[in-house]
Design goal:
The protein has 6 helices and 9 strands; from the N terminus they run αβββαβαβαββαββα. The chain is of the alpha+beta class.
């Protein structure tokens, strides 16, 4: 057995992630791993990271960013994710990745961007329509967080929306196992010299809990 496999089994045995925690799955290119003299491409990894405890739960080497979609489900199958919320970036917002997450007894929170038209545009349209009506009388929840640290103030607001008619209208809804909510998340980061802001759209299988959905949408800064 490879040393990396033994190490990850040790991590799994001693640092099992508790129920409700967020597991962030993303791709990372190892800095300085490219060797042009030897025609060696940079090393690209897919990682699963326990957001709250700060533990690397597992990783898998892939040939390139375009191969993440195939590697993520394989990585998830090696982890104990029951009761957790698994988040992925927009590249990996895929039905084939939602399926092993739900099969493992976990929920998902997927970032959704214009990389997935027309699904993204339909979600944006529905949430803008709901926002204009102050979410009345649409089934929704709300949560706000305010965090201060190292001279900055971070404000997050999450509006998950449950609308069966909207889900039925989504062009790519068929096959999205466990889908319960679409959500819009507003974030602001106030620094001494500037303010950063973003609006993010998400698909989620998390039960009706705006706080969990907001926690499953980590800020980019």
């Amino acid at each position: 057995m490879a040393s990396q496999e033994r190490f990850m089994q040790w991590v799994e045995a001693h640092f099992r992630v508790g129920r409700g925690q967020v597991i962030a799955v993303d791709g990372k290119t190892v800095r300085g791993s490219r060797d042009t003299l030897r025609a060696q491409q940079a090393i690209h990894l897919v990682r699963a990271f326990a957001h709250e405890s700060g533990i690397l739960l597992g990783q898998r080497k892939v040939d390139g960013k375009s191969n993440e979609i195939r590697a993520v489900p394989e990585l998830l199958k090696t982890l104990f994710i029951k009761g957790c919320v698994v988040t992925v970036d927009a590249l990996n917002c895929q039905k084939d990745i939602a399926q092993p997450i739900v099969a493992g007894g976990a929920d998902y929170g997927f970032a959704l961007t214009a990389n997935h038209p027309p699904l993204h545009q339909q979600v944006v349209d529905w949430l803008e329509w709901a926002t204009e009506r102050d979410f009345r009388p649409i089934d929704h929840t709300f949560h706000e967080t305010v965090n201060t640290a190292q001279g900055r103030v971070e404000i997050g607001q999450g509006y998950p929306l449950s609308a069966p008619h909207a889900f039925q209208a989504l062009a790519d809804y068929d096959g999205w196992v466990g889908l319960r909510w679409m959500a819009v998340v507003y974030r602001e980061c106030h620094l001494p010299d500037r303010t950063q802001a973003e609006t993010a759209y998400c698909l989620s299988s998390v039960p009706a809990d705006a706080q969990r959905i907001l926690d499953a949408s980590p800020a980019p800064w």
